[in-house]
Amino acid sequence: MSLEAENQEIEDSMRNLARKLISEKEVDVVIGYSKGTIPMSVSPIMIKKVDDVDKLIWSNLCYVNLAKYLVPRIPQLIDPEKGNLKVGIVSKGCVGRALIHLAAENQINLENIKMIGIPCNGIINRKRIEKEIGEREILEVYTSGDQIVVKGKDFEEEFLYSEYINELCKKCKVKSPPIVNDYNESCIGDCQEIENIEEDFSDLDEFEAKSSKEKWDYIKETLETCTRCYACREACPMCYCNLCFVDQNKPVWFNKTTDLPDIIVFHLIRAMHLAGRCVACGACSSVCPMGIDLNLITRKLEKIVKERFNFTSGIDINSPPPMTSFSMKDNEEFMLEED
Amino acid sequence: MIQKILMKNEIGKFYIELAEDYNIFAPVNEKGSIVFKKILNSEDIVLDYFNSKVPPKEILFPKTEVLFNYTIDGKDIKIEDRDDLNEKNIIFGIRPCDAHGFMLLENFFGFGAVKDEIFLKKRKNTLLIGIGCNVPKSTCFCTSVEGHPFKKDDLDIFLVDLGEKFLLETINNNGESLVKKLTWLTDPKKGDIQQAKELSKKAEESFETKLDLSKIDKILDPNFNHPIWEEISEICIGCGTCSYLCPTCSCFDVIDETDQYNNRGRRIRIWDTCQSCLYTQHTSGHNPRGSCIERCRNRIMHKFSYYPENYNTLGCVGCGRCVQLCPVNNDLRTIINKINEIENKKEEKVVA
Q1: Could B255 and A256 be called an inter-chain contact, meaning their C-beta atoms sit closer than 8 Å?
Q2: Which DSSP letter does residue B183 get?
Q3: Least CB-CB distance to B234: which of A74, A229, A230?
Q4: N or C end of chain B: which has fewer CB within 10 A?
Q5: What φ, ψ does residue B122 adopt, rounded to 5°?
Q6: Is the pLDDT of residue B351 over 70?
Q7: Which of A225, A227, A252 shows the shortest C-beta gap to B31?
Q8: Residue A26 has what pLDDT?
Q9: What confidence score (pLDDT) does residue B223 get?
């Protein structure tokens, strides 16, 4: 099936499910994606009326992880009388994983959430395409056959879809949200049974082959243009702390300047906080205004967690994330023995 | 006013001559993004670009700026004078919208009795050589905010891109005395001046976005508690992209870093954003702008209500950076239209 047909099918079934949920009053609001005002973007939308359901779209630019709006719940999703509104949420695999992981960390209750599961077919790496197009304005983007077509005033270029999606999407094993055993009802639409995932981390080979110095240079070069706008943090469904470590000011824990050491400290500590928690949605990199690619760093941490704890985040609501639990069987060969 | 022709292949010569007395900042391509950088080699200058991703405000108002260094000797504190404030700068290739942004920043840093000497001194020592926008982006809307793709009055020297060459025009005495030194510049032909006029007209006509901002401050003022703010802020994730990439946003935080082992320290200012939860947090823990709703409202109110009230001009230059780079596409143009609708709906009701 061609990409357009696939997307159309996803969009139709998503709208039908959303319509059903709202008209049968199973949810108060559906969070999904709507058409953006600029070609390389889409806009999240909250739908409360059946009439508005047709504003929902699915395209390969739906890069925002919608789980973000539930932790902490934005005030618009809390009714002063009814309390938490019942929410339907358009869920590609990584949105589903985020919701399940947040439930595992006791941040949300899946009981009043309905995942509208969709089989995601990969998100376009918009930063990469923007870089390659350079100083020409993109006015239209669409998928056709196996190509991404990018048009401007006096140019039209095609990018091979399978090559120009996010690196994380290329390796993704969870296209649709996983089914949660205790909450069978929470996922409607396209969901999948997942027990254990055989991850393919070959995308890290190149990075791992580097010497320590080369790795360090890579990290420095990647991060140096950061403006510390924190779009990565704010787009990340796992960054839900009331007060981020880097914002602590009583006392100040870390310096806040854009000097390279301070930038690196922020990003590396944030990455550490995501070890065993990142759901590989790639939102952090998709939203970065400076086009910084943070995925490789978090991906490396996921690999370490997988190897040492055989853990994949956002699959099972009952297995606690390894960094928040202690087991006597945990390896501790790095501990130094007393003389 | 002096009009001259600067050939594009003479940019190197232009640079070398001016670099003797000035730090020259110009657009360069850094990892696929256009940014203004201090030029060390004229070949790095990019002339074919829409606009920089980060506005050139960062040259005079950097993301991180050491206000001063100090050393402590017993009870004596010695503040080291900054010696870079008197350096002369040229910002080459700035767009008219960003030049207007500097004018708005001057309003802020020069407001009231206590003036920001650091910014104002640097601004005074900086010449702006701007280039008109032959091809504005579809997200540009300077013509809706009292601007123009060929607006000259915020610049010292104005250039029009005529393909192989620039038509150079001095706007004030500063620009004139600079150009007088460059004796090798040739005079323009009549056709060049005509071509520049046509380009200006064509650029003006190409604008797709036309926003009505004539009444916005009057609409905003009484609608501080309107439910529209919930709608406008609904999808905002609360990052600082819009304000950090805004050529007129000027908020900053001041912090002291002390090195107690070496008896020294530095006072730094860093960019701050009204979208951050800490921005208005009181020591008590209370936050008058507790959620995204109040923070989004503040950003719009500041640009389109408070700014006109304080300085009698809009606080937005229409560069479209926040439109292009908002992570969730919360488009400022849509927001403005929604605000205008408040009034239209009211009028409809009255008629009915």
Answers
A1: yes
A2: T
A3: A74
A4: C
A5: -65, -40
A6: no
A7: A225
A8: 95
A9: 96
Asked if A233's CB is within 8 angstroms of B270's CB, the reply is no
Decide if pLDDT at B55 tops 60: yes
- Point out which residues pair with A150 in neighbouring strands: A141, A157
Contacts of A130 in chain B (CB under 8 A): 32
In chain B, residues with a C-beta closer than 8 Å to the C-beta of A137 are 50, 137-138
Q: Cβ–Cβ of B235/A235 closer than 8 Å?
A: no
pLDDT of residue B133: 97
In a mutagenesis test of the B interface, which of A55, A130, A234, A262 is the best target, namely the one with the most B β-carbons within 10 Å? A234
From the list B48, B137, B244, which residue is nearest A227 (CB)?
B244
Instruction: Return the pLDDT at A328.
Output: 82
| Residue with the two structure tokens 């254990």 | A196
Task: Determine the distance in angstroms separating the CA of A334 from the nearest CA of chain B, rounded to an integer.
Answer: 32
Instruction: Give the phi and the psi of residue B46 in degrees, each rounded to 5.
Output: -100, 130
CB B141 within 8 A of CB B104: no
d(CA B33, CA A181): 47
Please give, rounded to a whole number of angstroms, the shortest distance from the CA of B91 to a CA of chain A: 20
CA angle A187, A241, B256 (to 5 degrees): 155
With beta carbons under 8 A apart, name residues in chain A contacting B57: none
Residue of A nearest to B267 (CA): A257
Q: Which of A64, A230, A256 sits opposite B270 (nearest CB)?
A: A256
Contact (CB<8Å) A37/B323:
yes
Confidence of residue A338 (pLDDT cuts 50, 70, 90): low
What's the mean pLDDT in B92-119?
Answer: 96
pLDDT value of position B153: 95
The answer, for A131 touching chain B at a CB cutoff of 8 Å, is yes
Query: Which pairs count as long-range contacts for B11-14, CB under 8 Å and 24+ apart, including other chains?
Result: B11/B42, B11/B45, B11/B47, B12/B42, B12/B43, B13/B184, B14/B42, B14/B182
What are the φ/ψ torsions at residue B59 (nearest 5 degrees)?
A: -70, -40
Give the list of residues 6+ apart from residue A80 with CB closer than 8 angstroms, or none.
none
Query: In terms of residues, how long is chain A?
Result: 339
Minimal C-alpha gap between A306 and chain B (Å)? 30
**What distances in angstroms separate CA A9 from CA A6, A181, A209, A310, B232, one per listed residue?**
5, 27, 42, 35, 31
B349 band by pLDDT with thresholds 50, 70 and 90: low
CA distance A269 to A283: 18
Question: Residues of A69-81 as b/e, b for ≥16 C-beta within 10 angstroms?
Answer: bbbeebebbeeee
Of B33, B240, B331, the CB nearest to A290: B33
Query: Which amino acid type is present at position A300?
Result: K
Residue A129 falls in which region: left (phi positive, over 0), alpha (psi -120 to 50) or beta: alpha
Of the candidates B194, B189, B134, B187, the residue with the CA atom closest to the CA atom of residue B163: B134
Q: DSSP 3-state assignment of B318? A: coil
Q: What pLDDT is attached to residue B123?
A: 97
Can you name the residues that pair with B7 across neighbouring β-strands? B165
- pLDDT tens digits, residue range B123-139? 999 999 999 999 999 99
Confidence band for A252, pLDDT divided at 50, 70 and 90: confident
Separation between Cα atoms, residue B94 and residue B132, nearest integer Å: 9
